[in-house]
Design goal:
single chain, 450 residues, alpha/beta, 9-stranded parallel sheet, binds uridine-diphosphate-N-acetylglucosamine, binds calcium ion
Length: 450
């Protein structure tokens, strides 16, 4: 026996009006289909099968290797889609069926659904929800003892059935054998000419087995994302939850309405997040940091007591007590040490900067290794590119690079060296040297004649 999940994700998602597969649209930094996979695993599912069809190859790329794939070449309905994974279904499996476009689904709800299914020894259980406006959904039809009779699609429903406020979430648990037997029996004699998965419950019941309807879902969590408008609503709901969780864990968020934090971001205690901050990907931020207004940090590790002001940090590591910005741009693959100062209008790319080094203003550091305790004056440029190739520059500990210096890579400045302001350095500088590389000043007497 195994608890497995089948995720329906073959549909076209026409209303999304997108060149991208619907289930690949992101909610708080993660494609919808990955949200569903993650929540199914949290609920205890041991194996995931995703049914792909429309834009199959793109969807495949977003999935981890442990995910099994079934293909539905023609979209003939939800029942037909599940038929495509019959080979994955063993008789004694518990099969959970989810849709790829309900990213807000809660693990607790799925656990409760499975409990309800198991406790009552049902062969099939549908998750339902009571709503004010049931328009568009399949209706749950119960008998006078409140037992599930069947699910009727809106287009097939009678006037009386249309009034029912209990709807099908599209989420189910089945016993493997009963699901397979019922799938063999469904037909497409209905208003849409589709093979409805919903018909399997009635078929199982007619076989003398018991089926259930568990009204344990909130409409918010089963809401399908069908359009860009739905997508923005789903993002808003999840974003609010993420921010609330961080605040409950000790993070100070100054303005939750303008703070955008992806699901997997981690933030330490007493860190302050000022307004208009975007934290994306696998970013980890330590304790007691200040992430200043208008900062954007993607896939980066920030240690404790770091202050980032109005700056962008991409795929980089920043160690403790360092300050960045305002208006700094840390591009991918930088390792910045402790107690470093990256000041205003400083760009750093693919570089290592060791502890206590300072680049206070208007500097470009590209493809460089900087040691400890270095001071870079205003306007230093690491000239790393000759139009064809990139080269690296090394500056060793305790050097002083004067203002407006060009360091033409590849070049090395050894420890304790000084470079005079305005120099263009093309040759290595030995340790303890002063390098001056600029034309001497000439004053022309009486240059201006009256
Ligand atoms: C379905 C249910 C309905 C329920 C609703 C909940 C059926 C017949 N109806 O209706 O009772 O209230 O979901 O949202 O099941 N898909 C495929 N292949 C197909 C058809 C659909 O993979 O051939 C996928 C879609 O990509 C989507 C999911 O199945 O992820 C649901 O399909 P959709 O057409 O949205 O179902 P509804 O008509 O909304
Ligand atoms: Ca449909």
């Amino acid at each position: 026996m195994s608890f497995k999940t089948i995720i329906l994700a073959a549909g076209k998602g026409t209303r999304m009006k997108s060149k991208k597969a619907k289930v690949l649209h992101e909610v708080c930094g993660k494609p919808m289909v990955n949200h569903i996979i993650d929540v199914s695993k949290l609920a205890g599912s041991k194996e995931t099968i995703v049914i792909t069809g429309h834009m199959k190859d793109e969807v495949l790329k977003a999935l981890d290797n442990d995910i099994k794939i079934a293909e539905q070449k023609e979209r003939l309905g939800t029942g037909h889609a599940v038929m495509m994974c019959k080979d994955f279904i063993n008789d004694d499996d518990k099969i959970m069926i989810l849709c790829g476009d309900t990213p807000l689904l809660n693990e607790e709800t799925l656990k409760n659904l499975l409990d309800y299914h198991n406790k009552n020894s049902y062969k099939a259980t549908v998750l339902t929800c009571i709503v004010e406006n049931s328009n568009g959904y399949g209706r749950i039809i119960r008998d006078d003892k409140n037992n599930l009779l069947k699910i009727v699609e809106q287009k097939d429903a009678s006037m009386e059935e249309l009034l029912v406020k209990e709807i099908n979430s599209g989420i189910y648990i089945f016993d493997g054998l009963d699901l397979k037997i019922a799938l063999d029996k469904i037909d497409n004699n209905n208003a849409q000419g589709e093979y409805y998965l919903t018909d399997t419950l009635e078929l199982i019941k007619n076989d003398g087995k018991s089926v259930g309807a568990f009204s344990g879902a909130l409409i918010e969590e089963i809401m399908g994302v069908n359009s860009k408008l739905d997508l923005s609503k789903a993002n808003e709901i999840m974003r609010r939850k993420i921010n609330e969780n961080h605040m409950l864990e000790g993070v100070i968020i100054v303005d939750t309405t303008s703070t955008y934090i992806d699901l997997d971001v981690k933030i330490g205690m007493d860190t302050i997040i000022e307004p208009n901050v975007i934290l994306k990907g696998n970013t980890v931020i330590g304790d007691d940091c200040i992430i200043g207004a208008n900062s954007k940090i993607i896939d980066s590790r920030i240690s404790d007591d770091v202050k980032i002001e109005n700056s962008t940090v991409l795929e980089s590591n920043i160690d403790s007590n360092t300050t960045v910005g305002p208006y700094a741009y840390i591009r991918p693959n930088c390792n910045i040490g402790k107690n470093v100062k990256i000041g205003d209008f400083v760009e750093v790319k693919n570089s290592n900067i060791d502890d206590n080094t300072k680049a206070s203003h208007l500097t470009y550091i590209g493809d460089a290794n900087l040691g400890k305790g270095i001071n870079l004056g205003c306007g230093v440029v690491f000239v790393n590119y000759d139009g064809k190739n990139k080269f690296r520059t090394t500056v060793e500990d305790n050097s002083f690079i004067g203002c407006n210096t060009n360091l033409i890579a590849p070049v090395k400045v050894e420890e304790n060296s000084y470079i005079a302001a305005g120099s263009t350095i093309t040759d290595d500088v030995p340790k303890n040297n002063l390098a001056i590389a600029r034309a001497r000043q000439v004053n022309k007497d009486n240059w201006k004649k009256n």
